[in-house]
Amino acid sequence: MAGKQRRPGPQQLAAALAAGFRRDVLEGLARPQKALPPKYFYDAAGSRLFEAICRLREYYPTRTEVRITQTYLSEIARFATRGCALLEYGTGEGIKTRLLLRALKPEVYMPVDISADALAGAVKSLGRAFPALEIRPIVADFSRPLEIPAWGRARRVVYFPGSTIGNLSPEEAHAFLKMSRAQVGPRGAMIVGVDLKKDANVLHAAYNDAKGVTAAFNLNLLARINRELGADFDLRRFRHYAFYNPLAGRIEMHLVSLVDQAVDIGDYRFFFQRGESIHTENSYKYTVDEFRELAAQAGFRSAKVWTDARTLFAVHGLLAT
Ligand code: AVI
What we know:
Bound molecules: N,N-dimethyl-L-histidine
């Protein structure tokens, strides 16, 4: 019927996501510089590997952001306003969310994530920890424009921790901030975790850990394509490669082909030369001023910046302008 749009059911959504995965993989591997979108790292195995990364000695961002949140929790809560309506991009699985929920006592909490299973798990455990909290999970791909259902009348705050914004290109980050600005409205705010520019050796170690967990996380993307799209990638013929690109201000992750080879994905065949790479992730790092500028262009003023003593990581408190 014209004019009426129905929300897709879980099965339709799963089918659409599977079709999107196939399309993005085929399209990405057909490019001159082969590339795969990093959002596909996070199937069940990839999410477990990412949790293991977060516990690594070399991977400082998670630990540092938790410490900043603990240290400045009451200031952050005052900035966001107790009783606000809190929308988080991510499942809300982590300790930072629990700290914030305890301090903010939001009127409603809306976690947004692409994985229905991960979201359901997080909602269940958060429901146990915060029985009085109203939780409204939203299954959605937030790299696309998203309309949020009714938020209620409380002040709207978007929470985007983990420096996930760094996995977007600056243009995508701008679009994402603009979308968030439209979502929170004129009285709204945003709290964003942003990894800071720093000594390239520290960055290099964080993405080339000694135990090889980041390598396994990167290679799992090929394993996922084998599992879900029936491809025949031989994981022993690719190697994890991550480096800091100072001109672009980002860590780049690649999977490098160790030999000349062909890989089949259904009816499609892709050729790899020895030394050719698939670009799997960018992780942009911003100085405080660079991120302030990015936020300003999207209609936010960075009113507060909380950092750690070693200035490894920043949590920005943004206000709508
Ligand atoms: C999720 N994201 C912020 C991580 C990062 O640091 O860019 C993903 C990651 N990739 C390798 N290690 C961690």
